């Protein structure tokens, strides 16, 4: 009980700091945002023109988050860092066997969803930059001359480890190549 209360205290302290900088189109496990908001944003983006849509899930997302990278993003030192590191490395019991963890976020912790949002923040920029560098194609597959093409719109909507990319054109390698 003490540990869950301490995690809740950490969430109350850290959440405002990160909410101020989180990407706009992230909706999962955030105050004042929910799945309905994400669906409305998807619908709004989709209605604007003919689109290509990619729906993806980050496989084993919680289990593969790098502790060192997450702690670096958090940027806190001292007791705060040590406590978060202890929660991350706390491990779990699977099929009756206790294992400590070197990667991943323990699921079910009060602080777990905030930590996953912190780890995934920036994904929209990375995927947007990738999409901007792709060769523009018309819906029929023929290339669009970049000089005459307007900046292509790429919309990214994330809900925890699920996301949707909506764009007016697709890259020459196809959005399915994102891994």
Summarize the entry for a quick read.
The chain is an alpha+beta fold and about 180 residues long. Helix content is about 40%, strand content about 15%. The protein has one domain (about 1-175).
Describe this structure in words.
With 179 residues, the chain is of the alpha+beta class. The chain has one domain (2-177). The protein is built from 7 helices and 5 strands; from the N terminus they run ααβαααββααββ. The chain has helices at 2-19, 35-47, 61-64, 67-74, 78-88, 112-120, 123-132; strands at 52-57, 92-94, 97-99, 154-159, 162-167. A 3-stranded antiparallel β-sheet has the order 1-5-4, sandwiched between helices. The protein is elongated, with a radius of gyration of 19 Å. Residues 172-179 have low confidence and may be disordered.
- The tally of strands reads 5
| Largest pleated sheet | 3 strands, antiparallel
- The ordered H/E elements are HHEHHHEEHHEE
The largest sheet has its strands arranged as 1-5-4
Report the total helices. Answer: 7
Q: What's the overall geometry?
A: elongated
